[in-house]
Specification:
The chain is α+β, with helices and mostly antiparallel strands and 158 residues long. It contains 3 helices and 6 strands, in the order ααββαββββ.
């Protein structure tokens, strides 16, 4: 049965399994399995100044995480996960252990799944970190907020 034909419970299970497989492949630095979790032109967005901006393309995403394992001793856990099959979206909380640096980074990721294949189309990463006071806008680097219909001004004039 193809992804669009799955029931809501089956889609939820698929989403949970795919994110879990993706994290396992990241921990194993398995480029082929990581890439197979994404549509070919998938995108992984990051906060400003992180990892050179958005990563575009399944192979690039996969290679960059494999490189992180080699360079930083990276390992990840999924701490919480909520899947919403009605909108093909999910959100997780995670922990990134950079064992070579002795650093622990926590954050959230918003997942958007391709409605035809059920593969990951985009990930938006949000990190638990102090506000960078040198920036007027703290937003994901390269993410089209206006084009996606996000509010760009305060709803209350002050």
């Amino acid at each position: 049965m193809s992804y669009p034909d799955l029931t809501a419970d089956e889609k939820r299970a698929h989403m949970r399994d795919l994110i879990t497989r993706y994290f396992g492949a990241c921990n194993d630095a398995d480029v082929d399995t990581i890439a197979a979790c994404f549509i070919p032109d998938g995108t992984h967005y990051f906060p400003p100044g992180m990892y050179g901006g958005a990563w575009r393309g399944a192979r690039l995403i996969a290679q960059r995480w494999a490189d992180s394992v080699a360079a930083r001793g990276s390992a990840w856990t999924i701490d919480r996960m909520v899947c919403e099959p009605e909108t093909d979206q999910a959100v997780i909380e995670w922990t990134h252990y950079k064992t070579s640096e002795g650093t622990v980074l926590r954050g959230d990721e918003w997942y958007v799944f391709d409605p035809q294949t059920g593969l990951i189309a985009e990930i938006r990463a949000y990190y638990a970190a102090p506000q960078d006071r040198s920036l007027a806008r703290l937003e994901l680097d390269g993410f089209d907020y206006a084009g996606r219909g996000y509010h760009l001004e305060s709803p209350v004039p002050r």
